[in-house]
Write a structure and sequence with these properties.
The chain has nine helices and no strands. By secondary structure, it is mostly helical. Helix 5 runs parallel beside helix 8. It starts with a helix and ends with a helix.
Length: 194
């Protein structure tokens, strides 16, 4: 080989190595970003799908689907109404735990629908919620599992209480109010007025 051929081979090898390094960096960064955004849901998706690539593709598909939805905050009046309903059902727990568990499940669904989340099957609802509320989606899954066990008569009052607590975590996170002051939250003078 002459020196020009050697130089071209070396240059091509360097280009290939740089391209591989760039691809690996981009892939790691995407994985890190998804893991940070979705928290424990990232690991759940990877485990369920059987590989990192498939899990990440699932999470990206969820995000794309939810980004096309019109998820809206609540009006202050709706937030107050939902809060009052929640306080009311909590107050009835001692007298009617099964009824309160069913009501908590229904109220969470109503709140999700009011915010704009589609009411498909449970797994789709949980996946949709995971995009904006990854920190509480596991609460929703646990509450749902306990509710399903209650339907089969397999749980006691303490388990129902735990389910209501899990529903409350999701409920509180979903109770986002349309507040014009939030648009100015980065301005120090607006933060002190609230």
């Amino acid at each position: 080989m002459d020196s020009n051929t050697n130089t071209m081979v070396i240059a091509l090898a360097v280009i290939v190595l740089v391209a591989i390094a760039l691809w690996m960096y981009t892939r790691k960064r995407r994985s890190d970003d998804l893991a940070r955004r979705f928290g424990p849901e990232y690991h759940r998706a990877v485990d369920e799908m059987g590989s990192r690539d498939k899990g990440e593709a699932e999470l990206l598909a969820r995000k794309k689907r939810v980004d096309q939805l019109e998820i809206v905050p609540l009006s202050p009046a709706d937030a107050q109404r939902f809060s009052q309903q929640w306080r009311g059902l909590q107050g009835r727990f001692v007298d009617n735990p099964k009824g309160v568990l069913a009501d908590a499940d229904q109220l969470v669904r109503e709140l999700m629908a009011k915010r704009g989340y589609p009411m498909g099957d449970f797994e789709r609802r949980a996946a949709d919620i995971s995009v904006h509320h990854p920190g509480v989606v596991e609460h929703y899954r646990v509450a749902h599992e306990i509710t399903q066990s209650e339907h089969r008569g397999e749980i006691d009052t303490e388990a129902m209480r735990q389910a209501v607590i899990h529903y409350r975590a999701l409920f509180a996170d979903l109770l986002e109010v349309d507040d014009p002051r939030k648009a100015n939250a980065n301005h120090p003078e607006m933060r002190t007025q609230s």
